[in-house]
């Protein structure tokens, strides 16, 4: 019986891409090259092939397999990367024939995610996705299925190495699921607190490398990691975005999507993507100069559908308008409602248009009123200053402080609840409504 143990991974890669004429949703070769470079792999050569359908045994045909094997030997290849999803048996058969590590598109994306994850939650999510993927491929690494021997008093068949691995994997997956469930509960508590405070949430989504993090940093003065590579952002970041003196939203930066995103990854990142599902508005960021932008928009929408975020209102953000033929503008639909904003996250051109649309969508009528505070109610005054609600204050001779306020109904409710203030203490001014901000 032919025995084969898995070879260690390396940096020199041979890429294999197969065209299937009758397959509508083809994997993009240029994107595959970007994926390999994002994984810090040296793509030494690319081998192209065409088939009507994949070979059940090795995915590619016998002749093409010999060509790949010859290139592996000549170029001293460490790993062969397929721009497709391979079955466990196909990976094993290919490794046996090529005598080097073989990785499919899913495994490559998982490897990139493992390199990028920084936060505790992100690392848990990636490890869970990797283990679920590995659990179906354990047989590839273990051809020696002889029984383990027990000690004195424990003689017997024991369990196979494969069974041991599956049991240990199962325990680790259960542990990770429990930890992620705890993180999900914590995130849910934070969301409930924001809902109680009536602060709208806006989620940035888009195809990987569309410029989401650059836009996020520019809008919020944050420092989320950005790079011209796929999946630069894995860990979700939330920041407050002030639309004007009275309005603010919570802006969330999320992981980029890609065509044929592995299902294990979608499942592992479901807790993170709930931020998108529970958002009041999705900003769908698109690279406007990308020739395949429509296909990528559809790919993102498919993932949103999978996580239950397809019903959340979307505002399209056409980013990277640095080329002369583009200009900052707002496109409206047949109902004269904004549905697309053209801007540049690098130059900030179009930011005024975006903020204008967001203010219009989340505008609320402000109440203008007087509030008299006793000398021992300085905490209320400090809270109102922090919220930016005080227009003017006046100190009376009896020690009271009279405040002129411009305040939202949501903030007024919070004051009633937080400081047990009665409604009668707020005296409305003649210009009651300040109108939309």
Task: Walk me through the structure.
The protein is of the alpha/beta class. The protein has 14 helices and 15 strands. The strands form three sheets. The chain has a seven-stranded mixed β-sheet, with helices on both faces. It has a four-stranded parallel β-sheet with strand order 2-1-3-4, with helices on both faces. Strand 10 and strand 11 form a beta hairpin. Helix 1 packs parallel to helix 4, helix 4 packs antiparallel against helix 5 and helix 5 runs antiparallel to helix 7. The longest helix has 36 residues.
Attribute tags:
437 residues; alpha/beta; seven-stranded mixed beta sheet; four-stranded parallel beta sheet; 15 strands; 21% strand; elongated; disordered N terminus; disordered C terminus
Strand-helix topology:
Layout: E1 12-19, H1 29-38, E2 42-50, H2 62-75, E3 79-82, H3 88-98, E4 101-103, H4 105-116, H5 120-135, H6 138-141, H7 161-196, E5 201-206, H8 212-220, E6 237-242, E7 248-253, H9 263-268, H10 270-277, E8 281-287, H11 293-306, E9 314-319, E10 329-332, E11 338-342, H12 351-361, E12 367-373, H13 378-386, E13 390-395, E14 401-407, H14 409-419, E15 426-433
Parallel strand pairs: 1-2, 1-3, 3-4, 5-7, 5-8, 8-9, 9-11
Antiparallel strand pairs: 6-7, 10-11, 12-14, 12-15, 13-14
Helix pairs in contact: 1-4, 4-5, 5-7
């Amino acid at each position: 019986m032919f025995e084969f143990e898995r070879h260690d991974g390396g940096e020199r890669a041979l890429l294999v891409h197969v065209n299937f004429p009758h397959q509508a949703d083809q994997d993009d070769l240029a994107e595959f090259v970007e994926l390999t470079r994002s994984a810090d792999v040296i793509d030494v050569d690319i081998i192209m092939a065409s088939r009507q359908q994949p070979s059940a045994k090795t995915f590619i045909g016998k002749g093409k397999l010999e060509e790949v094997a010859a290139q592996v030997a000549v170029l001293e290849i460490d790993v062969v990367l397929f721009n497709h999803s391979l079955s466990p048996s196909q990976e094993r058969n290919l490794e046996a024939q090529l005598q080097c590590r073989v990785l499919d598109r899913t495994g490559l994306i998982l490897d990139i995610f493992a390199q990028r994850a920084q936060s505790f939650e992100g690392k848990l999510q990636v490890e869970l996705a990797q283990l679920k993927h590995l659990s179906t491929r354990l047989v590839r690494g273990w051809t020696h299925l002889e029984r383990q021997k027990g000690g004195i008093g424990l003689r017997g068949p024991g369990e196979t190495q494969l069974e041991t691995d599956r049991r240990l994997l199962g325990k680790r997956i259960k542990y990770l699921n429990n930890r992620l469930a705890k993180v999900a509960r914590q995130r849910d508590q934070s969301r409930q607190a924001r809902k109680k405070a009536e602060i709208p949430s806006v989620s940035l989504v888009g195809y990987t490398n569309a410029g989401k993090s650059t836009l996020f940093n520019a809008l919020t003065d944050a420092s989320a990691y950005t790079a011209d590579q796929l999946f630069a952002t894995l860990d979700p970041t939330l920041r407050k975005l002030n639309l004007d003196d009275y309005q603010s939203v919570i802006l969330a930066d999320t992981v980029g999507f890609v065509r044929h995103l592995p299902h294990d990854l979608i499942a592992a990142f479901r807790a993170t993507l709930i931020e998108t599902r529970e958002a009041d508005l999705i900003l769908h960021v698109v690279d406007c100069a990308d020739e395949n932008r429509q296909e990528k928009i559809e790919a993102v929408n498919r993932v949103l559908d999978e996580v239950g975020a397809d019903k959340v209102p979307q505002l399209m953000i056409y980013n990277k308008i640095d080329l002369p033929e583009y200009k900052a503008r707002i496109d409206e639909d047949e109902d004269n409602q904004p549905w697309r904003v053209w801007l540049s996250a690098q130059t900030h051109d179009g930011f005024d248009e975006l903020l204008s649309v967001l203010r219009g969508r989340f505008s609320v009528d402000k109440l203008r009123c007087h509030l008299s505070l006793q000398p021992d109610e300085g905490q209320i005054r400090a809270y109102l200053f922090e919220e930016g609600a005080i227009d003017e204050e006046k100190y009376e001779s009896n020690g009271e402080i009279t405040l002129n306020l411009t305040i939202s109904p949501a903030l007024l409710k919070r004051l009633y609840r937080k400081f047990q203030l009665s409604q009668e203490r707020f005296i409305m001014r003649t210009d009651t409504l300040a109108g939309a901000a």
